[in-house]
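Extended Data, panel c. Modelled sequence:
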Amino acid sequence: MKLALDINYKHIVMISIPLILSLFTHLYNPEGFPCNFYDEGVYLRRALYVLDNGSPQDPSSRFDHGQGSTSSYDHPHFAQLLLAGIFKMIGYPSSLNPVPTIQSIEMLYTVPRVLMGLFAVVDTFLLYKIAEFRYDRRVAFIASILFAVMPITWFLRRVYLDSILMPFLLSSILFALYAMRWKKDVDADNNSSNLQSDKNVINQSRNIVITTIVSGILLGIAIYTKIPALT
């Protein structure tokens, strides 16, 4: 019993360290780094348009890209729908009492950037679980720490479609791995003819179907956020 408690405690510590690092690297000074980028304003405007008009398609989006095309569509709509739903729940932006000052504008950007930072923390946890499931806890620990502190992940601090789709894409991979594991268990149980094994096969088969469907739904959401997620 004591050994089990020691092992669980060590596991909690191992998973806590990368999450704490990720919290710091992705939530520290969200309004100051990186600098505000044009695309962030585009995605925030579209989310606010959904709040104000109830439609996911903002006609003025045709001005957000090169005018080789006059179409107002350039990406699927899930990002603005998700952001609009979250903004509705927290009362953004009216709860901040926005005024035309630099400090107020910074605060308007801070809230969605904090949200992106929290998504990045979820990404870190999912990456840990994927690596743990596929390899072992040591690999998961190293992989999640690298993800948490690598400079290349700084773009996840911005309000990008990539920042929004990442949790769904990683969750889809994790559920796919669970389905593969249960498929192996079913194949192993099929070699046995006892009643208990037959019950296990039925339960595991049900789990395979459920996790496969969930994985597909999550992947579909990632693609509905940004089509290149398919690749």
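The radius of gyration is 22 Å. This feature is highlighted in the accompanying rendering.
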